[in-house]
Amino acid sequence: MLVHRNPVHRIRLTLAATFAFAALLADNVAHATTLAFPVLAPVFSKLETSLHDRPVVTDLAFLLGLIVLVMMAYAARHIAFTLNRLFGKQRHPYLDIDTADWPMLTVFIAAHNEEKVIAGCLTALLNSDYPENRLKIVPVNDRSQDRTQSIIDGFAQRFPDRIHPFHRLTGKPGKAAALKDALPLAEGDIALIFDADYIPGKGLLRQLAAPFFDPEVGAVMGRVVPVNGGSNLLTRLLDLERSAGYQVDQQARMNLRLVPQYGGTVGGIRRSAVDAVGGWNDDALAEDTDITFRLLIHGWKTVYSNRSECFEEVPEEWSVRIRQVRRWAKGHNQVLARQWRGLWGSRFLSAREKVDGFMLLTIFAVPPLLLLGWGLALTLYYLNASSLVALVLPVFAVMAYGTLGNFATFYEIVMAVLLDGNRRRVRLLPINLLCFFVSLFAITWASVELVTDRLLQRELVWHKTLRYRSASPT
Fold first, then answer.
1. Which CATH class is domain 105-328+335-348?
2. Does the keyword field hold Cytoplasm (predicted)?
């Protein structure tokens, strides 16, 4: 038997075999459909003639069909999540733990040029009801050039037994690198992490610490709620996105025992678990996604606590939002390239966890795929394959928007608005097309940049999100 060692030849053979199988399957489907619906016979006849006479059109059509299937798979996933939140059993397994022998807790606050917000976060943590003798607060000042260090030192002078600053003057830039350097200062096995713009409530630390009584839990994630959701149109749209992403998407994955995601803030990690999977990767742009999947692959659970709410600032300017989304996309796709093999090969995961994990891992790879599908549809149209485009384009358009609209499907946004008890916000739903297109092109741009950075061996750069509050006092 002839075996092609050249990878290009093997790819061509694989594609040829796939197209042949698809053509055989399409013939059988078309035959069955015309028997059931005779009115469609002329359409399939014209389509069959077009495909057999024009092999390039066949290849493009098959690729477009695969993209449509991907879009439909994501849409079905999100619809299932929405229905679960509406009719399914809701899991909050650790929420009733109120009195316990609470573990030693170290809270890290990631801060880089955070003079506007750091005081609010520190004040909120000092007002926590977590036992003072079991709580260590470590502000991680990562090379700040503003008044962040002086504000932190002012708090440390007033509360020397509770606040222990870590001033990082040199080293690799980025949140992951800063946390990696600061983690040795932790006391106890549990570390909670907040970004400096977050304002934790009085009982939040207990809620986030409670799941760690389960020895299988490696990470915990709370719910993020925008504190400036009413500032302008953009923040209102992002409030919808956050609501759907946490209230529906994350909670449904928790309910269905799939793959909740640790989000890097308003959450915590078990230090021994992180050490067991190799520690923090200091070159990861999305350190939260990276640690989520490394813990998952090695059998550790991530718990989502929907009622553990914490307030954050969301971008108030489109330029800041685009930069944030580009960073997320680069970081997420970086983890995809590193972890997809380990995910499928993990012996600790069920088949449905692997499927859901892979769909979560590839979510930022879908927008470029969507644009490619649009390009293929237009190409087929101009190649006079209009009968084919007429069959798949309506499904493609509907499923594309339902899947990718602002990273939270149409259905999820509606359900989140109803669950939050603020129905008037649903009026903003049509305007989500604006966020949809902005995110679509920003993520595609970032994905292309990630590939070129890899080819040119350029180091990925972490960009901080701009803050909008008035500067904190010293």
1. alpha beta
2. no
